[in-house]
Amino acid sequence: MAAFFQSLGRTITAGIVIVIIMIAIGGTFGRMGSMDYWVFFMRWLHIMSGVMWIGLLWYFNFVQTPSMPKIPDEHKPAISKVIAPAALFWFRWAALSTLVTGLLLGGMFGWIGHALSLQRPYAGIGAGMWMGIIMAFNVWFVIWPNQKKVLGIVPAEAPAKAAAAKMAGAASRINTMLSIPMLYCMASFSHGGF
Predict the structure, then answer these.
(1) Which of 7, 33, 105, 148 is the most core-located residue (most Cβ within 10 A)?
(2) Radius of gyration of the chain measured on its C-alpha atoms
(3) Do 91 and 175 meet the contact criterion of CB atoms below 8 Å apart?
(4) How many angstroms separate the CA atoms of 194 and 184, rounded?
């Protein structure tokens, strides 16, 4: 059993199998032809993507960045050459997936235009969407390009690396700040908190 869980692929596959079993037991297969089911499914994908994205954002801000000064210099390459590039891969694709599934979900509900133009009663979800769009933009066009310099993926001199680290760090902190009201807006829309 322990060997089974040493494989991420097998672990993810098992999670998907459990969902399929839950769908079968719940009689959901018969509802898969309805739009309501696909709206639910898109919401589930949106939440899954968002959990990965914000989880990694908070990992970077609450764990990795504050821990770096405590790590001996000879061990830092393990972070910058192995862990950070892998985490940034999932981070940026989770950001894109969250954005795309969120926009598709708004389109499926038919209120995307009302939300993006901040019309009542969609101002709360619209504000959350705009914060998410800003955050995704930061991930792809500020954090990632600068992190490539910091991590040595793109060649850069020491002063350029230092400037890139500062810029990426600032954008990441802005995203951390925005994640708090963004999550409030997202949760409040369907749960009455806005």
Answers:
(1) 105
(2) 20
(3) no
(4) 8
DSSP state of 33: T
CA atoms within 13 A on the CB side of 20: 6
Nearest to 172 by CA among 88, 50, 48: 88
At residue 34, φ and ψ (nearest 5 deg) are -90, 150
For residue 181, the Cα-to-chain-centroid distance in whole angstroms is 15
Residue numbers in the chain where pLDDT is lower than 70: 27-30, 193-194
Of 89, 104, 180, 188, nearest to 139 (Cα)? 89
Helices of type H across 34-122 = 35-59, 65-67, 76-78, 84-109, 112-116
The pTM assigned to this predicted structure is 0.89
- 95 three-class SS: helix
Per-residue model confidence as pLDDT tens digits over 47-81 = 999 999 999 999 999 999 999 999 999 999 999 99
Please say whether the dihedral angle defined by the alpha carbons of residues 98, 104, 108 and 109, taken in this order, is positive or negative: positive
